[in-house]
Amino acid sequence: MYRKLPEGLPWREALLSTLRARPGGQGYKFSCASPGHPDENPSATLTFKLAPDNRGDMALVYCHVCKGNQPTLAAHDLVPSDLFEYSKAADEPETSKPIERYHVYTDEEGRPAHRVKRNAGKTFQQSRWDQSSERWHSGLGGCKTYLYRLPSILTAVKNGQVIFVVEGEKDVETLERFDLSATCNPMGADAWRPEYSQYLAGAEVVVIADNDDPGRRHAKKVASSLLGTAKSVRVVTSLPGAKEGGDVTDYLLKNGGTIEELRRLAEEQSPFGDRDLATQETIASKSPQSWTFALSDFLDLDFPEARFLVEGVLPEGVTLLGGRAKAGKTYLLFGLSVALACDLEPFSENWDG
Ligand SMILES: [Zn+2]
Fold first, then answer.
1. Spatial separation of the C-alpha atoms in residues 277 and 283, rounded to whole Å
2. What are 250-296's pLDDT values in tens digits?
3. Is the pLDDT assigned to residue 312 strictly greater than 70?
4. Ligand 1 centre and the CA of 334: distance in Å?
5. Cα-to-centroid distance, 24 and ligand 1 (Å)
6. Phi and psi for 181 in degrees, rounded to 5?
7. Residues whose CB falls within 8 Å of the CB of residue 269, separated by 6 or more in sequence, listed in order
């Protein structure tokens, strides 16, 4: 493939640094640099989307003065194929399946921080960006991790847009194709960290669960974490037509789902709240000893009228008897048991006789 982008850097970083792009607007802003117009305030914008062939991202470059991208590309000595992460070579067979993909996570300012490489066969490799050597190193090495597409998400939150949280980068990119703001945490289900929530402070969030148990558990964990930080959280756990393990990409690209329906599904969900949290914790804790309930749930329960074996003292069912050591709890219960067995009136005169 013919490219003019400098080699050595990953595609996205090479493009960002060549254009000297800075986070702004829906993605990045930079100076058009075309001699056709002065450009003290950057006129050109750059956003990333999934390329139509699903084989990586494409960059959308647009100058708002030139009304296009040709003068901008020429001014930066780039060619159209530089705008594609992967360009199909002429002799390469048609394929809709990604062979391998890099998903780069950046910090708030759009500087690369870490990335994941998805290999054919759905295995994943993490690496981290080392600023001093300007190289990727294998593994995360305890580096600070971020939400996917963080700069655009921060802008979207500021603009009051609904943020969709999904399980993987592929789903984020699918939703971006439909002009929705979406993000995910690195390393998929069960890898959400509480510190990610701060980035979505004050946002209206819709969490879309993958259609399996780990997916639903993950979605509720994300929602719980966002409770009190986000303005509102809604969880969509059943996408129409979803097979076991299906995700929002299947829903939109294979099962005929629409953005309108997705929005409606989200609006139909009642906001995630303390009650869900209690239910969630109850489900999450496998051991009954650690079940917890929200007080509101407890107060809503209907209890049958208590029936007493010993009026005012010993109800039917499970009784908890408390008292200091050596206070006589055991003898009291022995006495009560004997009285009940012999049909004597407990605490009456002939009871302890
Ligand atoms: Zn221009």
1. 10
2. 999 888 899 999 999 999 988 888 666 655 555 445 444 445 666 76
3. yes
4. 93
5. 17
6. -90, 120
7. 234, 235, 236
Query: CA quadruple 173, 207, 25, 179: dihedral positive or negative?
Result: positive
141: Cβ–Cβ under 8 A, 6 or more apart, which residues?
A: 128
What is the distance in A from the centroid of ligand 1 to the CA of 317?
Answer: 80
CA 84 – ligand 1 centroid, Å: 21
Specify the DSSP class assigned to residue 251: H
Instruction: Tell me the CA–centroid distance for residue 60 and ligand 1, in Å.
Output: 14
The encoded tokens of residue 276 equal 């869900």
Hey, which of 84-88, 244-248, 287-291, 321-325 has the most confident mean pLDDT? 244-248
CA 35 to centroid of ligand 1, rounded, Å: 8
Distance 31 CA to ligand 1 centre (A): 8
Residue ranges of the domains in the chain?
1-88, 97-146, 154-287, 308-341
Look at residue 303 in the predicted model and tell me its pLDDT. 63
* Ligand 1 center from residue 63 Cα (angstroms): 5
The rounded Å distance from CA 57 to ligand 1 centre is: 23
Please say whether the beta carbons of 110 and 147 come within 8 A: no
b/e map of 221-248 (b: 16 or more CB within 10 Å)?
bbbbbbbebbeebbbbbebeebeeebbb
Q: Is the pTM of this model over 0.85?
A: no
Query: Distance from CA of residue 332 to its chain's centroid?
Result: 56
Distance of CA 174 to the CA centre of its chain: 14
Arch. (CATH architecture) of 154-287: 3-Layer(aba) Sandwich (3.40)
Q: Ligand 1 mean position to 74 CA, how many Å? A: 10
